[in-house]
Amino acid sequence: MLFGSLVFIFAFLPVSLIVYHWLRLSERQYAAKAWMVLASLAFYGWWDWRYVFLVSGSIVVNFWWSRVMERHGTRASMLLGVGVIANLLLLGYYKYANFFVSTVDALTGIDWHVGRIVLPLAISFFTFQQIAYLVESRRDGKAADSFVDYALFVLFFPHLIAGPITHHKEMLPQFAAAGTGRLPRSYVTVGTAVFVMGLAKKVVLADGFALLADPTFNAVRDGALLSAGDAWLGALGYTLQLYFDFSGYSDMAIGLGLMFGILLPVNFASPYKSTSIIDFWRRWHISLSRFLRNYLYIALGGNRRGPVRRYGNLLATMALGGLWHGANWTFLIWGALHGFYLIVNHAWRAVMGTGDNAARRVGGWLVTMLAVIVAWVLFRAENFHSALSVLSSMVGLNGAGTVQGFLVARTIGWIAVAVGVVIVVILPNVLEIVRYPESTPGLPIEHDGLRPVARQPSPLVAAAALGCIAAFAFAKLPDPGVFLYFNF
Length: 488
Fold this sequence. Notes:
488 residues, 2 domains, globular
């Protein structure tokens, strides 16, 4: 079910909130939690009810397996390995089986088919989340106490489909305390504001920039050559579309969580203000970066075995992180390219130090954004050939291109890109505007880069501005569009 759909905003969400808070105020805590579990299953099953059994089975098995590890502490390491492998096999079958078979066919010529496998929504997110849970349960020697709380940790619908990837130590205590008492007013007001502004990010800004990005990459997919201007316009359009789409979803998730009294972690902290690739990965998809660091990079040895091994670990971690996004060579190359960027950045700092001045910040920002935009072309293109064509056009190798009358409203497009750049680089982001870290004490995780605004408008002005934003967003609701990260 889409956050920006009419059925979600005017039916599912009001019913879910009213019943939950009625049960909460009635001090029927277990019933309130059970209601949230049922609502989340309904939310997930709206697309295809058959996959409810898949996610439910995954939850039951992982919870039970953590209990098995707790009871058999001497064999917990072996049991952990079995649990992690089982989760990866499930993810591998649904997400990578067709990719593996097509790659083997291309290399060997064997006519091998497994049939079309439909990728279940959110399988990457709930699999990674439960792998982290198993690892931490093994380290602590302690499994979750309550199955309902654990089910909510995985299923809670605001973050179920596209994250953030939450940590059970942050979330299980919140779900254990949920379902009773009156919710502070700030949770409702801040949650509503964050949700509305996140919705506007998606349906107004992200879907607007899609009108620049999609024609560009679709034309290249169909064999067209682009001029340098069209290629850059399309690449910049996608750079802005992806940010507003995914950060908009994350904002909406945080807003929805607050409405239920749950604090979700910050997932974006103005990443396009970054002055280095290292800084970028501290601000972009923070929960995924944390997972890759804690459960892959450190497991490979991290930076404990010298610079050469460290750089190899960075490259492997980012390449696998790229492959996590999808079963395509372009994702693997995108991840490896970011791994290379990080290696260069760390090596540069080792030689040149980390001094800070205006010239260095501006130069660092320009280099960082150029690197990010180039990598996004690989991320968006349907294959490596299309990505190479767009990149060639961006450096002028395809001349004036072969497309006539392409993107008729080029001037409007460039104005839109300029406005988008101002929004993401100069203006405060949604969480800074509402002071999420300050207005809701107990923020679960680090939030590098967030700087809450010093002054806020009066309540009347804020309400009027939010009403205007909501009007623009609601006007787009009949055609909300699909979130890009639903594909990953």
